[in-house]
Amino acid sequence: MTAAADFPPETDAPEAAGADDNETPAVADDATVADTPTDAGAAPAADDTAEAESAEPAPLAGDGSKSEETPDEAASEGSEAADVEIELVEVDVVEVVEDSEVVAVEVVGVAEVVEDDEVVAVEVVDVTVETGQSADEPWGRVDEDGTVSVREADGWRVVGQYPDGSAEEALAYFERKYNDLASEVTLLEVRHRRGGASASDLRSTARTINGKLEGAAAVGDLASLVARVAALTETLAAESATEAVAAREAVDDAVKARTELVEKAEALAARDPRTVQWKQATAELNALFDQWQSQQQNGPRLPKSTAQQLWKRFRDARATVDKHRRAFYAELDEAHKGVRDRKTRLVEKAEALAPKGEDGIPAYRELLDQWKTAGRAGKKVDDALWARFKAAGDALYGARIEREAADAEASREKIELKRALLDEAKAVGDERDIAKARSILTGIQRRWDEIGRIFPRDTERSLDDELRRVENALRSREDADWKRNDPEQKARANDMTRQLNDAIQKLEDELEAAKKSGDKKAIANATDALEARRTWLKALGG
Q1: Which of 7, 15, 287, 304 has the most crowded Cβ, counting Cβ within 10 A?
Q2: For residue 132, what pLDDT is reported?
Q3: What band does 114 get if pLDDT is binned at 50, 70 and 90?
């Protein structure tokens, strides 16, 4: 803790710092307040920064903030808690004087709470400390040789000497030392009332202040300060027990959370490298590491042995995943290298087919089949090689397209000729004489073939289909005519007609006889059989 005020050096032998003849004790009328600057006893050294700092009371014990081990091993073994320091940056002391005696001291202090070299809070302490002394019971005395003593329960205790000044100056100097101690005690009490600081940190500060109060070179009611610190320490002891339980629970929860991260990392490390999606796995492991760092920075500090054990497991899991990933990509790079060489050779062969034009397409198709089975060489390499391979194929197919375009231009006249032939072919269906229709169609087919093939192929197929329908219609007529005029079929039909006629004649005789006899059943049978034979005969054309 440093103060803006420049006090004389704190020592049991103030003469070592030199006498200050310019110090003027506070003088006021009865019940008046005299503002006494804190540097009144050190006016000649007001600009001496080093002397001013040496004159300050010892700093308050820092409230150690918790920080955990860093992810790397060295930091995890050597990390220590960051200190929280309370620094008094400005102190004003106002003495209340009655009958030329200081009966109270009002201390106004501005304190900065510093954590990791950054000011995180500013506290203003304004407290009036009753000196508790009167003209009958002074807390201090000054001997003729400048020796200053403080009154305690068991008598007077020498606190230092001030030989080069007056007795009032000597007492004022050591009373200011007391006021500094009182301000530290008050500041500690204020911090406890306001909350925010842990009880263990406040106890540490209280122990530091107690150390300053033991044999303090100051004049004032030191016993009351000790009692206040003792009372506060007793209160903080009970609060520390509660904090300790909560801290242990928080540590247990942190260990559990940290263990879950370790187990997830180990699960990633235990997976088969051949089945791992490495991009996703790397992202998952990085997320686990970010969570680890977040818990480390924001969570409670774990016991060193537990933290080191968990970190070792987590680090080993990360190392295993990294080893598998490197091995996978090394193997993949080697495979990509072989595929790249194969595809490069295919590209060179495809480019060599360019002079063949359309005739190189069959060979290019074979190369394309080999390309499909060659594997992958990495996205960038594959894209570059494929662009070259495709360009070689485009050149070959471009030659075909140019040839087909020329053929299509040359086929326009042929298309018109074939469409004219199709118009002539309509007469084939209109011709009743099958032989003459066949002759017309044969002439059309001969001229059709003489015209030759046309392009595009779709147009050629469309025209061929139309002519084929004419041919099929004529063939159907020829088949039907053949069936009607086939001698064998005619002979079979005549023989069937004769048999049916004979059967009809016989059934008619039987029907006549049944009618004469009146046999109704015989009449019905003969009638049905006769109708069936006549139907068959009609179907044969008889």
Answers
A1: 7
A2: 45
A3: low
**Contact call for residues 189 and 228 (beta carbons, < 8 A):** yes
The β-bridge relationship of strands 84-98 and 101-115 is: antiparallel
pLDDT digits (tens, 9 = 90+) for 226-285: 999 999 888 888 888 887 888 888 889 999 999 999 999 999 899 888 888 888 999 999
- Mean pLDDT along residues 143-159: 89
Query: Beta-carbon neighbour count of residue 270 at 10 Å?
Result: 10
Considering only CA atoms, which of 223, 7, 22, 251 is closest in space to residue 131? Answer: 223
Would you say 218 and 181 are in contact if contact means Cβ atoms under 8 Å apart?
A: yes
Residue 206 CB coordination number (10 Å): 25
Across 517-536, b (16+ Cβ under 10 Å) vs e yields eeeeeebeebeebbeebeeb
DSSP label at residue 374: S
Please give the pLDDT value at position 73. Answer: 41
Give the residue among 76, 501, 48 at the shortest CA–CA distance from 258. 76
Q: What angle do CA 341, 394, 454 make, to 5 degrees?
A: 140
Cα(468)–Cα(442) distance, integer angstroms: 12
Cβ count near 321 (within 10 Å): 23
The torsion of the CA quartet 175, 208, 190, 5, rounded to 10 degrees, works out to 40
What is the spatial distance between Cα 294 and Cα 278, in angstroms, rounded to a whole number?
Answer: 24
**pLDDT per position as a tens digit, 231-246:** 988 888 888 888 788 8
